[in-house]
Protein backbone atom coordinates (compact mmCIF):
# COMPACT_ATOMS: atom_id res chain seq x y z
CA UNK A 1 0.00 0.00 0.00
CA UNK A 2 1.40 3.41 -0.95
CA UNK A 3 2.04 6.10 1.65
CA UNK A 4 -0.40 9.01 2.01
CA UNK A 5 0.39 11.89 -0.36
CA UNK A 6 1.38 14.21 2.48
CA UNK A 7 2.86 11.76 4.97
CA UNK A 8 5.27 13.54 7.30
CA UNK A 9 4.43 17.00 5.96
CA UNK A 10 3.91 19.94 8.32
CA UNK A 11 1.21 22.37 7.24
CA UNK A 12 -0.28 25.66 8.44
CA UNK A 13 -3.73 26.83 7.34
CA UNK A 14 -5.00 30.32 8.19
CA UNK A 15 -8.70 31.01 8.58
CA UNK A 16 -9.07 27.35 9.54
CA UNK A 17 -11.73 27.73 12.20
CA UNK A 18 -14.62 27.36 9.76
CA UNK A 19 -15.68 27.07 6.13
CA UNK A 20 -13.20 26.29 3.38
CA UNK A 21 -10.18 26.70 5.66
CA UNK A 22 -11.51 24.13 8.09
CA UNK A 23 -12.14 21.67 5.28
CA UNK A 24 -8.66 22.27 3.86
CA UNK A 25 -7.20 21.39 7.26
CA UNK A 26 -9.40 18.30 7.42
CA UNK A 27 -8.40 16.99 4.00
CA UNK A 28 -4.70 17.75 4.50
CA UNK A 29 -4.81 15.72 7.68
CA UNK A 30 -6.62 12.89 5.92
CA UNK A 31 -3.73 12.75 3.44
CA UNK A 32 -1.17 12.41 6.21
CA UNK A 33 -0.13 15.98 7.02
CA UNK A 34 0.27 17.35 10.53
CA UNK A 35 -1.75 20.56 10.52
CA UNK A 36 -1.62 23.78 12.53
CA UNK A 37 -5.04 25.45 12.31
CA UNK A 38 -4.80 29.22 12.75
CA UNK A 39 -7.73 31.59 13.06
CA UNK A 40 -8.53 35.03 14.43
CA UNK A 41 -11.09 33.18 16.57
CA UNK A 42 -8.75 31.09 18.72
CA UNK A 43 -11.62 29.12 20.26
CA UNK A 44 -12.87 28.11 16.81
CA UNK A 45 -9.37 27.04 15.81
CA UNK A 46 -8.94 24.94 18.94
CA UNK A 47 -12.39 23.40 18.56
CA UNK A 48 -11.68 22.46 14.94
CA UNK A 49 -8.30 20.99 15.89
CA UNK A 50 -9.88 18.99 18.70
CA UNK A 51 -12.27 17.42 16.20
CA UNK A 52 -9.95 17.07 13.21
CA UNK A 53 -6.57 16.57 14.86
CA UNK A 54 -3.62 18.93 14.82
CA UNK A 55 -3.08 22.11 16.78
CA UNK A 56 -5.40 25.10 16.97
CA UNK A 57 -4.00 28.59 17.57
CA UNK A 58 -5.21 32.16 17.51
CA UNK A 59 -3.62 34.46 14.93
CA UNK A 60 -4.45 37.82 13.38
CA UNK A 61 -2.99 37.53 9.87
CA UNK A 62 -2.71 41.31 9.57
CA UNK A 63 -0.33 41.48 12.55
CA UNK A 64 3.32 41.07 11.60
CA UNK A 65 4.40 39.84 15.01
CA UNK A 66 1.64 37.25 15.25
CA UNK A 67 2.44 35.86 11.81
CA UNK A 68 6.12 35.68 12.68
CA UNK A 69 5.25 33.75 15.87
CA UNK A 70 2.87 31.42 14.00
CA UNK A 71 5.65 30.27 11.69
CA UNK A 72 8.37 30.30 14.36
CA UNK A 73 6.27 28.27 16.80
CA UNK A 74 5.39 25.74 14.10
CA UNK A 75 9.04 25.24 13.21
CA UNK A 76 10.04 25.11 16.88
CA UNK A 77 7.50 22.38 17.59
CA UNK A 78 7.77 20.33 14.41
CA UNK A 79 11.24 21.11 13.09
CA UNK A 80 10.15 22.24 9.63
CA UNK A 81 7.38 23.79 7.51
CA UNK A 82 6.31 22.14 4.27
CA UNK A 83 3.03 23.86 3.40
CA UNK A 84 1.50 27.23 4.21
CA UNK A 85 -2.06 27.95 3.08
CA UNK A 86 -3.11 31.63 3.09
CA UNK A 87 -6.87 31.22 3.34
CA UNK A 88 -8.02 33.82 5.91
CA UNK A 89 -10.37 36.43 4.52
CA UNK A 90 -13.34 38.69 5.16
CA UNK A 91 -16.01 40.46 3.12
CA UNK A 92 -17.45 43.95 3.53
CA UNK A 93 -19.71 44.16 0.49
CA UNK A 94 -21.26 47.42 -0.68
CA UNK A 95 -21.69 49.42 -3.85
CA UNK A 96 -19.06 51.98 -4.79
CA UNK A 97 -21.45 54.70 -3.68
CA UNK A 98 -21.97 53.20 -0.23
CA UNK A 99 -18.64 51.52 0.54
CA UNK A 100 -16.62 53.26 3.25
CA UNK A 101 -12.86 53.72 3.21
CA UNK A 102 -12.74 51.64 6.40
CA UNK A 103 -14.49 48.71 4.72
CA UNK A 104 -12.21 48.96 1.68
CA UNK A 105 -9.10 49.06 3.85
CA UNK A 106 -10.24 46.19 6.08
CA UNK A 107 -10.70 43.78 3.17
CA UNK A 108 -7.48 44.81 1.42
CA UNK A 109 -5.52 44.50 4.66
CA UNK A 110 -6.76 41.04 5.61
CA UNK A 111 -6.42 39.55 2.15
CA UNK A 112 -3.36 41.29 0.76
CA UNK A 113 -1.25 42.16 3.79
CA UNK A 114 -2.26 38.89 5.46
CA UNK A 115 -1.30 36.83 2.44
CA UNK A 116 1.93 38.78 1.91
CA UNK A 117 2.96 38.25 5.53
CA UNK A 118 2.19 34.55 5.23
CA UNK A 119 4.21 34.23 2.03
CA UNK A 120 7.12 36.20 3.47
CA UNK A 121 7.35 34.28 6.75
CA UNK A 122 6.77 30.83 5.24
CA UNK A 123 9.23 31.23 2.37
CA UNK A 124 11.92 32.53 4.73
CA UNK A 125 11.90 29.09 6.34
CA UNK A 126 11.32 27.10 3.16
CA UNK A 127 14.18 28.68 1.21
CA UNK A 128 16.59 27.53 3.93
CA UNK A 129 15.10 24.02 3.77
CA UNK A 130 15.30 24.12 -0.03
CA UNK A 131 11.74 22.83 -0.20
CA UNK A 132 8.18 23.90 0.47
CA UNK A 133 4.86 24.92 -1.03
CA UNK A 134 2.73 28.00 -0.41
CA UNK A 135 -0.89 28.04 -1.59
CA UNK A 136 -2.78 31.33 -1.66
CA UNK A 137 -6.56 31.31 -1.82
CA UNK A 138 -7.74 33.90 -4.33
CA UNK A 139 -11.21 33.87 -5.92
CA UNK A 140 -12.85 33.97 -9.32
CA UNK A 141 -14.03 37.41 -8.15
CA UNK A 142 -10.43 38.46 -8.70
CA UNK A 143 -10.66 37.32 -12.32
CA UNK A 144 -14.08 38.61 -13.30
CA UNK A 145 -14.98 41.26 -10.74
CA UNK A 146 -18.24 41.17 -8.81
CA UNK A 147 -20.60 44.15 -8.40
CA UNK A 148 -20.61 45.26 -4.78
CA UNK A 149 -17.16 43.78 -4.21
CA UNK A 150 -14.69 46.34 -5.51
CA UNK A 151 -12.64 45.80 -2.34
CA UNK A 152 -12.80 41.99 -2.40
CA UNK A 153 -12.25 41.66 -6.15
CA UNK A 154 -9.27 44.01 -5.99
CA UNK A 155 -7.76 42.08 -3.09
CA UNK A 156 -8.25 38.70 -4.74
CA UNK A 157 -6.76 39.97 -8.01
CA UNK A 158 -3.83 41.33 -6.04
CA UNK A 159 -3.19 37.90 -4.57
CA UNK A 160 -2.60 36.59 -8.10
CA UNK A 161 0.08 39.21 -8.78
CA UNK A 162 1.65 38.56 -5.38
CA UNK A 163 1.70 34.84 -6.06
CA UNK A 164 3.47 35.19 -9.40
CA UNK A 165 6.04 37.69 -8.13
CA UNK A 166 6.86 35.60 -5.06
CA UNK A 167 7.06 32.42 -7.13
CA UNK A 168 9.73 34.01 -9.32
CA UNK A 169 11.74 35.10 -6.28
CA UNK A 170 11.93 31.71 -4.58
CA UNK A 171 11.75 29.16 -7.41
CA UNK A 172 15.53 28.67 -7.45
CA UNK A 173 15.31 27.60 -3.80
CA UNK A 174 12.92 24.75 -4.76
CA UNK A 175 10.04 26.61 -3.11
CA UNK A 176 6.74 26.81 -4.99
CA UNK A 177 4.01 29.46 -4.68
CA UNK A 178 0.65 28.93 -6.35
CA UNK A 179 -2.89 30.26 -6.06
CA UNK A 180 -6.36 28.74 -6.19
CA UNK A 181 -9.42 30.65 -7.36
CA UNK A 182 -12.61 29.05 -6.02
CA UNK A 183 -15.91 29.90 -7.63
CA UNK A 184 -19.34 29.36 -6.08
CA UNK A 185 -18.71 27.02 -3.13
CA UNK A 186 -21.25 25.79 -0.58
CA UNK A 187 -20.22 27.43 2.70
CA UNK A 188 -22.09 29.12 5.57
CA UNK A 189 -21.48 32.42 3.77
CA UNK A 190 -23.12 31.32 0.51
CA UNK A 191 -25.87 29.55 2.45
CA UNK A 192 -26.87 32.97 3.79
CA UNK A 193 -27.46 34.29 0.27
CA UNK A 194 -31.08 34.76 -0.84
CA UNK A 195 -32.13 31.48 -2.50
CA UNK A 196 -33.01 33.20 -5.78
CA UNK A 197 -29.56 34.83 -5.98
CA UNK A 198 -27.81 31.56 -5.21
CA UNK A 199 -29.89 29.73 -7.84
CA UNK A 200 -29.08 32.38 -10.44
CA UNK A 201 -25.34 32.11 -9.80
CA UNK A 202 -25.46 28.32 -9.74
CA UNK A 203 -27.23 28.29 -13.10
CA UNK A 204 -24.35 30.31 -14.57
CA UNK A 205 -21.88 27.53 -13.73
CA UNK A 206 -21.31 25.23 -16.73
CA UNK A 207 -21.32 22.18 -14.44
CA UNK A 208 -24.72 23.39 -13.15
CA UNK A 209 -23.87 23.02 -9.46
CA UNK A 210 -22.01 24.76 -6.70
CA UNK A 211 -18.73 23.30 -5.54
CA UNK A 212 -18.04 21.71 -2.18
CA UNK A 213 -15.30 22.85 0.22
CA UNK A 214 -13.65 19.44 -0.17
CA UNK A 215 -13.16 20.14 -3.87
CA UNK A 216 -11.14 23.24 -3.05
CA UNK A 217 -9.23 21.24 -0.46
CA UNK A 218 -8.40 18.60 -3.06
CA UNK A 219 -6.71 21.23 -5.19
CA UNK A 220 -4.66 22.32 -2.18
CA UNK A 221 -3.55 18.73 -1.61
CA UNK A 222 -2.39 18.53 -5.22
CA UNK A 223 -0.40 21.76 -4.99
CA UNK A 224 1.06 20.69 -1.66
CA UNK A 225 2.20 17.28 -2.87
CA UNK A 226 5.01 16.08 -5.10
CA UNK A 227 2.44 15.49 -7.84
CA UNK A 228 2.83 19.22 -8.61
CA UNK A 229 6.60 19.38 -8.13
CA UNK A 230 7.16 21.32 -11.39
CA UNK A 231 4.25 23.73 -10.96
CA UNK A 232 4.78 27.23 -9.58
CA UNK A 233 3.31 30.68 -10.16
CA UNK A 234 0.07 29.19 -11.46
CA UNK A 235 -3.57 29.98 -10.74
CA UNK A 236 -5.80 26.92 -10.49
CA UNK A 237 -9.49 27.67 -10.97
CA UNK A 238 -11.93 25.54 -8.96
CA UNK A 239 -15.17 26.89 -10.34
CA UNK A 240 -16.94 24.27 -12.39
CA UNK A 241 -15.93 26.06 -15.60
CA UNK A 242 -17.34 29.45 -14.68
CA UNK A 243 -15.60 32.38 -16.42
CA UNK A 244 -13.42 30.08 -18.53
Automatic annotation (TrEMBL):
PROSITE patterns: ADH_SHORT. GO terms for molecular function: 3-oxoacyl-[acyl-carrier-protein] reductase (NADPH) activity. Residues 9-188 form the Ketoreductase domain. Its EC number is 1.1.1.100. Pfam families: adh_short_C2 (PF13561). InterPro entries: KR_dom, NAD(P)-bd_dom_sf, Sc_DH/Rdtase_CS, SDR_fam. Keywords: Oxidoreductase. Belongs to the short-chain dehydrogenases/reductases (SDR) family. This is 3-oxoacyl-ACP reductase FabG. The gene is fabG.
Amino acid sequence: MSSPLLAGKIAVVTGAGQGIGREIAHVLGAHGATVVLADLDADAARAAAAELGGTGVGCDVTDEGQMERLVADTVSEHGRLDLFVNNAGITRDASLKKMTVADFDAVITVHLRGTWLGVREATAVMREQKSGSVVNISSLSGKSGNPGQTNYSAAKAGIVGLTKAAAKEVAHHNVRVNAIQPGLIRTPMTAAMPPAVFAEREAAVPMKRAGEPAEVAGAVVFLASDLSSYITGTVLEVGGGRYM
